[in-house]
Amino acid sequence: MSQVKPLKKPPGFRDATIPIQRPPQPPPPRKINLPPSFYQEKKRRTCCFGCCCCCFVFLILLLFLVAAGGALYLWFNPKLPVFHLRSLEFTKFNVTENQDGPKLNAQSNVGVELKNPNRELKFVYGETKVELKGENDVNMGEGKVSGFVQEKKSVKVVKFVMKSNEMLYGDNVGKVIRSGFKSKNLRVSAEVSTAIGIGYNEWKSWKIGVRVSCGDLRLKQIENGATPKCGITLFNWFHLN
Fold this sequence. Notes:
Elements: H1 36-76, E1 82-98, E2 101-116, E3 122-125, E4 128-133, E5 139-145, E6 148-150, E7 154-167, H2 173-183, E8 187-200, E9 203-204, E10 208-218, H3 219-223, E11 231-234, E12 238-240
Antiparallel strand pairs: 1-2, 2-7, 3-6, 3-8, 4-5, 4-8, 8-9, 8-10, 10-11, 11-12
């Protein structure tokens, strides 16, 4: 009787009773502990690089703005406005005595001439106020006008209606004011307070505060046609005659 030959195992056959042998896993990589100074130095280098980049960009922008500003200044050649005290006429002037002391009741018309010498730029004025001062710093009237625009290469006379209802303090102040007005020897000056910006076509800049001092002349000098040039003070400290 012939022996039975065992069947051959098919390809890929795996005996379930035999455990699977997995290849050994390599050990995890060893972590290298760096000293804290290494991280601080790296962070410091990164911060320095960022600061250098910011400074470089800021320097480039600054140089560009300076170059652009210089080019615009040469192109427009901006000039400040020129102020003159053009006229002063009193329509009412009374010094009365009462229990509290002398009192000034006055009304006047003041004309201030504005000249724009620029060929391309116009001036944009904010609200403009004028205060008329007499001797002993007596307030002889105040008036104001709303904002306006003065076109390039133009001359404009702005009229102010001045009113004063001022108490006069001090010895003989009322007599000095009354006699000075009658003899036309009373010294007066006008203080103009405004804000001025520049404009080109539809563009307008921001405004800066300006104070203008006009006069310190006698009434008869103004009535005879004297038109003194006024001094301009910018930023409350920079004075121009």
